[in-house]
Design a protein that fits this description.
The complex is a heterodimer. Chain A is built from 37 helices and 14 strands. By secondary structure, chain A is α+β, with helices and mostly antiparallel strands. The longest helix of chain A is centred in the C-terminal third of the chain and has 18 residues. Chain B: One of its GO terms (cellular component) is clathrin adaptor complex.
Chain lengths: ~900, ~425
């Protein structure tokens, strides 16, 4: 007897029959009927019409029947919300059941019913279950909070469930801890700045303890959460690494990769000369190799991540080249990834081996793979100079095979080799020319034409060759046409006497007979150049080209850093930052590797060019300005102190009062005043819109011009109701830092356009720089002093802040509210010296020293320069 | 987390769906079908597929695609590992993981999926725990159930669920207490045409079958633990003791499980048990060729090589093969172009040989691709790396268990590349 019997139907109509059975008196018949309903549901049949009948079966002592009914409910409650409410009583009753399995089951199922009316009733039972004596119930309840949050986030916040969830991180049972972490992480993903997972050394310690004892899945959640933590110094970082390392030997590959992520990230903080650093590097290789003996799908994800790891730290796997050799029955997606990593690991030491392999691959069956292999040979030549000659001869061997796609691919890469090593391998051109006729792919044709044009002086019949291409000019793809045009012009400049006719022909083809604007433009430019100043034309067209290098294949370093922080995630599979593609994660925070990098960067400041100047302007320029009380800048240090109240605790970031930005007379009756604020890590622009005209205003929208820090509205301006005459409306506009960047004068200037149904209006305002101070701006104490000393004197600014009647602790607390962190404090001769750090949204660090003389209301501030953590986006 | 799961068979029929959050329309699978079509071979479907609103992460097991849908950033390895776990659980419950068995047990499948994942978070994936929650179907039980009306679902909380050893249930009792370990090593190797090793490594696992009463605490030690420098353990193994003493100390799960896997890549430790000599040539004129393959023992440590099978992927132009084998049987499949030679036991006194002629498509050019040769074999009572278990000690319980260790070596992905086609002029 199998379950396939549940799929048999009768003529009378399935639903009708099931209905009768569900209402049967016999328990057994009922259960069988519910099973039939579930079976239909699994294959996507609509059995929602049976809702009331199935719900009637819910009141039962039989656990299996109960579970089956629950399964049904979860699927169909949404479509029958009024009916679903019938189930509530049973749920509430089950949440009080003496059997923990039933309590957990009830709270779990209730959370899966995505009906508003039900969620209201869920709150009380959930609250109880979160504090249940049985850990099984607590861990289920933790997940339920995440479910509820997905349905109604506001409700979860209002009911204080988030705090309860945070408390569960300290639960005595590791499984509960793991689920609490998982739930919080999921909630945090939809609230990137909510600071839900407030990690500090104590919680980290709890997580590390739970890590050893929870299930493999729990370990993944905890490790991923640990990876978001920033250790305060290298000692802490090392101790975390030590406790995470055993996870590398876990049988679950996801655990291994998450552990690798934590280690790769925290390793950044360890000094390179530390013995432990070397040990750790050695420990990373074997688990990565082991991942490659798993199932193909796992291998694929592992390989994508290894690709990142070898770019960041090639030393880890440099001796493991052979594990990346391709087996012929590997799936194609594994083969291509292995190939890519082989090239990344290629070096003078192993190049012979690699080339032998690549040559082998070039004779495989799979066309895509063969092409990639041929291309790889070219990349080797460019990467390892000593091997170039051998690569070229291997490519020539392959060309001799006359296999069409191999020849074409080989020609494309030989072109690149010429560009890397000009005037070295031109002897092979003759061989290439023999294959001219077999080229039918645009890329290969274009490459060949480029070669002929570039070396026209050495090819006797270059004009004939190019002429032969010209015959079918109109049928060629744009790529080939452009290349042909350039090649013939090159030829003409090199051999002007014989080729005049040819060049005229191509110029007229390009400019008169073509619809392609690029081609026409290029044609006209050449034409003008040739006709006005042939010498200049020579200089332009035959100019020396920059050499290409292997780096074109590498991931750009800042992106690589970010991706290393995302090892094991989808981002690592796609090699794109999560912000680029993950849906639903609004304004993902960009993650960066921790600190040691900063120190090395300090040294670079000495070489700073004009870009650095732009950065330098930031703090010193703005801060003294605020001292003069210039209201426009509103909110340098002076303003930050100015908060009323004055005692003790950090009170959050300072918000200046609103000022008028746009006068009604200039804007057909619309007056705008506003200010900026930073709340919970989100920058907001608070606006008051007043209608001083006689007619109603609607359709508001707002846009920013490019600005120094890439501020941009994170969403549309929400003015829901029309603004009637004499009405004022307050709007809060969240801002993101993802807009285009352009340096403004002054630096904090922001040009805004506001549109309504009447017109578009422009105004500019200035935001306080403290708006840009981020929450994780605490510099590492251990390296602060060294960094401080390394900063040259000429990038220092000093100024005084007057009339502050606060002692140093209060001042420091107050500043912390605006994300200015006091790293250290010293008292010398009655003077309190506060050493402080600020980090700007674009990664610039500002270090400051503040001297406070007890009793003297004037503070002296030294702001030396800025450590360049990441280049300004603006270049 | 994991949002939904679709099971799709090789013909492209979607035969089961399960949603852990809101219901996602099965039309999302169209993106999968598109990728499936593009990949031609089912093995080549990319594991991660991006669609406008979701990500599809899939595995291909036993001719079934397990396609999971995720919506937010989730570690893909986590999803893939979980899907493998699902496939293994089906295998464990129903004896095999196939479309038929899944359809036959659809309600249990549904109950299992519900128990394994909650809101996309793994809930219970250990086979021990699942079996306490949902009993696997047996003929006897379904009969008893029909008569007595009792159910397949456990009424109490699984004991292992919350202890610090979630993998073991309490109150295990056996009349015969026994613990058996299988050391299984697979050789992965690529040999070049002359038989020289290009790359070789050993993938080893120790599978355990432990049926011991109570809460036994076991320690397994090796004669030569130094061989093992790259190991992955079952969660029950105490890593600290391995680090400090190189012994495997653990409280075992009940029943069958994989205790550890290891990986030996130092090439001097990887012995290659056999050699293959091959010669495949084509006549330049005419439409035929010749094939000659001979196999012999190399480093077998005095053991017999069994279950020897040689597989050759022929170029497309080969229509048929007329060969004779001195030992075993051969078969050439003209559709897949696979020549399979099943040799059986390797007799060192009389070396097996396969030779004869190949007929090719007339007028076809010389084959472009090089063939590859795959080797399957088995050697009983030998771990090719030389790994040897020293002893197994049990603490915490008083009875004396039966103990045993078996060794076996197999070929994993063991392949030899063939020489380029030799063109021979026909003698006139």
């Amino acid at each position: 007897m199998t379950d396939s019997k549940y799929f048999t139907t009768t003529k009378k109509g399935e639903i009708f029959e099931l209905k009768a059975e569900l209402n049967s008196d016999k328990k057994e018949k009922k259960k069988e009927a519910v099973k039939k309903v579930i079976a239909s549901m699994t294959v996507g049949k609509d059995v929602s019409a049976l809702f009331p009948d199935v719900v009637n079966c819910m009141q039962t002592d039989n656990l299996e029947l109960k579970k089956l009914v629950y399964l049904y409910l979860m699927n169909y409650a949404k479509s029958q919300p009024d009916m679903a409410i019938m189930a509530v009583n049973t749920f509430v009753k089950d949440c009080e059941d003496p059997n923990p399995l039933i309590r957990a089951l009830a709270v779990r199922t209730m959370g899966c019913i995505r009906v508003d009316k039900i969620t209201e009733y869920l709150c009380e039972p959930l609250r109880k279950c979160l504090k249940d004596e049985d850990p099984y119930v607590r861990k289920t309840a933790a997940v339920c909070v995440a479910k509820l949050h997905d349905i109604n986030a506001q409700l979860v916040e209002d009911q204080g469930f988030l705090d309860t969830l945070k408390d569960l991180i300290s639960d005595s049972n590791p499984m509960v801890v793991a689920n609490a972490v998982a739930a919080l992480s999921e909630i945090a993903e939809s609230h990137p700045n909510s600071n839900l997972l407030d990690l500090n050394p104590q919680t980290i310690n709890k997580l590390l303890t739970a890590l050893n004892e929870c299930t493999e899945w729990g370990q993944i959640f905890i490790l991923d959460c640990l990876a978001n933590y920033m250790p305060c110094d290298d000692r802490e970082s090392q101790s975390i690494c030590e406790r995470v390392t055993p996870r590398l030997s876990h049988a679950n590959s996801a655990v291994v990769l998450s552990a690798v992520k934590v280690l790769m990230k925290f390793m950044e903080m360890l000094p390179k000369d530390l013995d432990y650093y070397g040990t750790l590097l050695k420990k990373l290789a074997p688990p990565l190799v082991t991942l490659l003996s798993a199932e193909a799908e796992l291998q694929y994800v592992a390989l994508r991540n290894i690709n990142l790891i070898v770019q960041k730290r090639p030393e880890i796997l440099k001796h493991e080249m052979k594990v990346f050799f391709v087996k012929y029955n590997d799936p194609i997606y594994v083969k291509l990834e292995k190939l890519d990593i082989m090239i990344r690991l290629a070096s003078q030491a192993n190049i012979a081996q690699v080339l032998a392999e690549l040559k082998e691959y070039a004779t495989e069956v799979d066309v895509d793979f063969v092409r990639k292999a041929v291309r790889a040979i070219g990349r080797c030549a460019i990467k390892v100079e000593q091997s170039a000659e051998r690569c070229v001869s291997t490519l020539l061997d392959l060309i001799q095979t006359k296999v069409n796609y191999v020849v074409q691919e080989a020609i494309v890469v030989i072109k690149d080799i010429f560009r890397k090593y000009p005037n070295k391998y031109e002897s092979v051109i003759a061989t290439l020319c023999e294959n001219l006729d077999s080229l039918d792919e645009p890329e290969a044709r274009a490459a060949m034409i480029w070669i002929v044009g570039e070396y026209a002086e050495r090819i006797d019949n270059a004009d004939e060759l190019l002429e032969s291409f010209l015959e079918g000019f109109h049928d060629e793809s744009a790529q080939v046409q452009l290349q042909l045009l350039t090649a013939i012009v090159k030829l003409f400049l090199k051999k002007p006497t014989e080729t005049q006719e040819l060049v005229q022909q191509v110029l007229s083809l390009a400019t008169q007979d073509s619809d392609n604007p690029d081609l026409r433009d290029r044609g006209y430019i050449y034409w003008r150049l040739l006709s006005t100043d042939p010498v200049a034309a020579k200089e332009v067209v035959l100019a020396e080209k920059p050499l290409i290098s292997e780096e074109t294949d590498l991931i750009e370093p800042t992106l690589l850093e970010e991706l290393i922080c995302h090892i094991g995630t989808l981002a690592s599979v796609y090699h794109k930052p999560p912000s680029a593609f993950v849906e639903g994660s609004r304004g993902v925070q960009h993650k960066r590797l921790p600190a040691r990098a900063v120190i090395t960067l300090v040294k670079r400041t000495g070489l700073s060019g004009s870009n650095m100047g732009a950065g330098l302007g930031v703090a010193p320029a703005a801060m003294p300005a605020s001292l003069g009380g210039a209201p426009a800048v509103g909110g340098g240090l002076g303003d930050l102190f100015d908060l009323g109240g004055g005692v003790g605790m950090p009170t959050g970031s300072y918000v200046a009062p609103k000022t008028v930005w746009l006068l009604a007379i200039k804007a057909k009756g619309l007056e705008i005043s506003g200010t900026f604020a930073r709340r919970g890590g989100i920058i907001q622009m608070d606006l008051s819109l007043t209608n001083k005209a006689m007619s109603v205003m609607t359709d508001f929208a707002v846009q920013f011009n490019r600005n120094s820090f890439g501020l941009a509205p994170a969403g549309p301006m929400q003015v829901l109701t029309p603004l009637s005459p004499n009405q004022t409306i307050d709007v809060s506009l969240p801002l993101s830092m993802s807009g285009p960047v352009m340096k403004m004068e002054p630096l904090n200037n922001l040009q805004v356009a506001v549109k309504n149904n009447i017109d578009v209006f422009y105004f500019s305002c200035q935001y306080p720089l403290s708006l840009l101070f981020v929450e994780d701006g605490r510099f590492y104490r251990q390296v602060f002093l060294a960094t401080w000393k390394d900063i040259p004197n000429d990038s220092e600014a000093q100024f005084q802040i007057k009339d502050i009647h606060l002692n140093s602790d209060v001042a420091s607390n107050k500043l912390q509210g605006s994300n200015i962190f006091t790293i250290a404090k010293r008292t010398v001769e009655g003077q309190d010296m506060l050493y402080q750090s600020i980090k700007l949204t674009n990664g610039i660090w500002v270090l400051a020293e503040m001297r406070i003389q007890t009793g003297n209301p004037n503070y002296t501030c030294t702001v030396p320069r800025i450590v360049y953590a990441s280049l300004l986006h603006s270049q | 987390m994991i949002h939904s799961l679709f099971l799709i068979n090789n013909a492209g029929d979607l035969f089961l769906e399960k949603h852990w959050k809101s219901v996602i329309s099965r039309s999302v699978c169209d993106y999968f079908f598109e990728a499936r079509e593009k990949a031609v071979e089912p093995d080549n479907v990319p594991p991660v597929i991006r669609t406008p609103h979701h990500y599809l992460i899939n595995i291909y097991r036993e001719k079934i695609f397990f396609v999971s849908v995720i919506q937010t950033e989730v570690p893909p390895l986590f999803v893939i590992e979980f899907l493998h776990r699902v496939a293994e659980t089906f295998q464990d419950y129903f004896g095999e993981c196939s479309e038929t068995t899944i359809k036959d047990n659809v309600v249990i499948v549904y109950e299992l999926l519900e128990e394994m994942l909650d809101n996309g978070f793994p809930l219970a994936t250990e086979s021990n725990i699942l079996k306490e929650l949902i009993r696997p179907p047996t003929i006897l039980r379904s009969m008893v159930n029909t008569i007595t009306g009792s159910s397949n679902v456990g009424e109490t909380l699984p004991t292992g669920q919350l202890s610090n050893i979630p993998w073991r249930r309490a109150g295990v009792k056996y009349t015969n207490n026994e613990a058996y370990f299988d050391v299984v090593e697979e050789i992965d190797a690529i040999l070049d045409k002359s038989g020289t090793t290009v790359f070789a490594e050993i993938q080893g696992v120790i599978d355990a079958c432990v049926k011991l009463s109570g809460m036994p605490d076991l320690t397994l030690s090796f004669m030569n633990p130094r061989l093992l420098d790259d190991v992955s353990f079952h969660p029950c193994v105490r890593y600290k003791r391995w680090e400090s003493e190189r012994v495997i100390s653990f409280i075992p799960p009940d029943g069958n499980f994989q205790l550890m896997s290891y990986h030996i890549s130092a090439q001097n430790l990887v012995a290659i048990p056999i050699y293959v000599k091959q010669n495949i040539s084509f006549f330049e004129t005419g439409s035929s060729g010749r094939l000659d393959i001979a196999v012999g023992p190399k480093q077998t440590m005095g053991k017999t090589v069994e279950c020897l099978v040689v597989t050759v992927h022929m170029p497309k132009v080969v229509l048929s093969a007329n060969l004779s084998a001195t030992q075993g049987t051969y078969n050439y499949d003209p559709v897949t172009k696979i020549l399979l030679w099943d040799i059986g036991k390797l007799n060192p006194q009389k070396l097996p040989n396969l030779k004869g002629s190949l007929s090719l498509q007339s007028g076809a050019p010389k084959p472009e691709e090089n063939p590859s040769l795959n080797i399957d074999l088995k050697i009983q009572q030998l771990a090719i790396s030389g790994l040897k278990v020293n002893r197994l000690d049990m603490y915490g319980e008083k009875y004396k268990p039966f103990k045993g260790v078996k060794y076996v070596t197999k070929a994993g992905k063991f392949q030899q590349r063939l020489s380029e086609w030799l063109l021979v002029h026909t003698e006139v």
